[in-house]
UniProtKB/TrEMBL annotation:
Its EC number is 2.7.1.24. The gene is coaE. ATP binds at residues 14-19. It is an enzyme of class 2 (transferase). This is Dephospho-CoA kinase. It comes from the Bacteria. One of its GO terms (molecular function) is dephospho-CoA kinase activity.
């Protein structure tokens, strides 16, 4: 049995990458979400959570023993060196979690879904990159609607994410998501048929 090749799937906030990933899953493709992996590695009982508590103190825990993400975010938001400490701890663990999950894939290719695919270096785990792109105005509208967020908040998130140009530079395929869901799903199906013809992500 051949090992599945890995497709990296990324896109800015509100670009529609979750809808794209979901349709690939519906088509039977094994998807690993980097955000989920980031949550798994800090679950109660995991060594990473113990290290975080030891470093930041018990006030980064909720009453039920789970990580209080908001409290932790406040701590690292003000202090770049604390953020670097946390990233140095978590990134390798998240990477291991992702690799293990991708290795269990049974589909001809597997997908790593990550909003920070390019910035985090996770694209090195993939053989091909698909960027879901959308005009910035549309990203703003979708995110404000979905998260009940203000325009300023969404602008701040857009600024923190990779520049669109950087993402697109790494793209082998670009899916411009500026129409309705049925059209988007038909584009995913078209890409899926194409991906099934590839070996190691290459034609």
């Amino acid at each position: 049995m051949t090992t599945p090749w890995i497709l990296g799937l990324t896109g800015g906030i509100g670009s529609g990458k979750s809808a794209v990933a979901q349709h690939f899953i519906d088509l039977g493709v094994h998807c690993v979400d980097a955000d989920h992996a980031a949550r798994w590695v800090v679950e109660p009982g995991k060594p990473a959570l113990a290290a975080i508590v030891e470093h930041f103190g018990p006030d980064v825990l909720q009453a039920n023993g789970e990580l209080d993400r908001t409290a932790l975010r406040h701590r690292i938001f003000q202090a770049p060196e604390e953020r670097r400490w946390l990233e140095a701890l978590l990134h390798p663990l998240i990477g291991e979690e992702i690799v293990a999950s991708l290795a269990s894939a049974k589909s001809p290719y597997a997908i790593l879904v990550s909003p920070l695919l390019v910035e985090s270096g996770q694209h090195k785990l993939t053989q091909r990159v698909l960027v879901v792109d959308a005009p910035e105005q549309l990203q703003l509208q979708r995110t404000m609607l979905r998260d009940q967020a203000s325009e300023e908040q969404v602008h701040a998130i857009l600024k923190a994410q990779a520049l669109r140009e950087d993402r697109l530079k790494h793209a082998d395929d670009v899916l411009l998501n500026d129409r309705d869901l049925p059209w988007l799903q038909s584009e995913v199906e078209r890409l899926h048929r194409f991906y099934l013809t590839l070996h190691g992500g290459q034609p």
